[in-house]
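Per-record layout

source: Rhizodiscina lignyota
name: Flavin-binding monooxygenase-like family protein
length: 633
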Amino acid sequence: MKAGVEAAAAEIQQKYANEREKRLRPEGDAQYIDLSKSDKFKHFQEDPWVDPKAAQAEVPDYCKYLIVGAGFGGLLFAVRLIEAGIPASDIRLVDSAGGFGGTWYWNRYPGLMCDVESYIYAPLLEEMGYMPKHRYSYGPELREYAESIVAKWDLKDKAIFRQLVKSATWDNDHEEWVVETESVGAQGSQHNIRAPFVILASGLLNYPKLPGIPGIENFQGHSFHTSRWDYAYTGGSPTDPSLVNLRDKTVGIIGTGATAVQAVPHLAQWAKKLYVFQRTPSSVDTRDNHPTDPQEWQNKITKRGKGWQRERSDNFNARLAHASPETEVDMVSDSWSKISTYCALIGNASEVRPEDIPTYVASLHAQDFVRAERIRARVENIVKDKDTAERLKHWYPTWCKRPTFHDEYLQTYNNPNVKLIDTEGRGVDRATEKGLVVGDKEFDLDVLIFSTGFASPSTGNGSPALRAGIEIKGRDGADLDKRTREAPGTLHGVISRGFPNLFWPGPLQAGVAANQMYVLDQLSTHIAYILAKAAAGVDAKNKVIIEPTAEAEDQWGLRIMSMAARGAAMKGCTPSYMNSEGGLDQIFELPVEIQMQVARVGVWGKGILDYVSVLEQWRAEGKLSGLEVSVAH
């Protein structure tokens, strides 16, 4: 980079640090309200979409493969198991929701769409022979598509809905899991499902969080979280965002992240008055969504033949991880695929040694400066009020928060009924019976909408038990959550010693990507291979027991640690769910030997393509290296 650009980038980097300081809170993730423990807000987790009269499948006493979660992750695991030769009749999916779809079941707010190109996001497009309606699919289509997958693989009667998994305990005597569930809405209605194999596919962003604003329980107006949109109050429906009931309402929405960026334009169209309360602005680039052109689909996108979706996905991942030359063709060619610095979060194919860290981090900032300045200029060019425009500019590197993309969000602030309330990093000061207070001003509201996101996937060292909300006890009573927090270890990021036949798809010690569906597809394929290979040649009457060796876990942890330097740029990021509200920076204050231990629980630092290559090579050897496989008679 030119010296002038580097100097300007250094100046901007100091501004980033100043802005970060405004947003740091000593309580970290504890600043949010635990909905399950809140009498006032626990109803925010209730299911507004379920038909209470619909018949629910009977909870079985036994199944061979129990998948926790019926979103796209759960469906991918089921499909890959079936493709590996496991009968669909041996599989059950259990979910607290009333239907398939996972995040696309719960989230139905107006404007909901995928932020990754649907041609690489929607799984199994080749197998389904399906062409997405838009380049970036809307929520209703993705829910319908999930149902189409269910129909194709005959999974409709394999799902057990409205069942909250409470615990999973390994039965040492019978060598199988005992999974305790409770019927949603029927406290005390508990069931035990015995299953030799359990797969956790509960998702990454599945626990809505609320800010712990002083006095928030005193607000007497209507309120809801965007993950449980209340169309009965706003008017409209998931397929018709005509929020007609808001015409005479003053609406407040807290949050300006990925959800708000999509919902705010619809609220602005219908509300009498809309206040958008902002702590940290998003980086908002162009989206350019449009209907899929059938001719382009046939002649350009799918023309490459079998494997086109994997090839397109690999190309996207390669560009984000610097795994291919800049001159290589960009198959996706959108605002995502042109981000050259997101590798600071998801992994970098380049070699980075500890002594290279200062140069490496400086290079990332210099590269990111060009994009960030363009995004900030975009705000100035769109938002007419200069003060509002200045407050909508993001002051942090691209990799610190998930970037957003939209073509109507910034324009919304030109509407006379829309007002940005920038809290300058503090967040809302307090709530009253009538509304919210920021500084010395109180804003009266009819309805308060929380667009405040979800609990961080990194909480508890990325504990799969915590993320699934399940108490998991393995062999001899070992606690998975405690193990993950104190002495974590896995093989490939999918299974831990002491917890036989229990699998999950990272992100602890696994590869990560901007497109989570790609990760789920690769890891469901990998786990299905392990299960099928381990059972090959074993009498079906016998039980197969699978777990990693202590040596394999240790070696895998050392490999993760050896790549940790690539994550150095995350230090100093503005608080967000990516870094547990800044809490992860505390790691860098610890003694070096402890930092090294913590580094063992990171992600695969060389990027998702390198990680997948390692898994594919391991499978090609066909030895199940690092796993202990035994047969119980």
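summary: The first strand starts at residue 32 and ends at 33. The mean pLDDT is 92.
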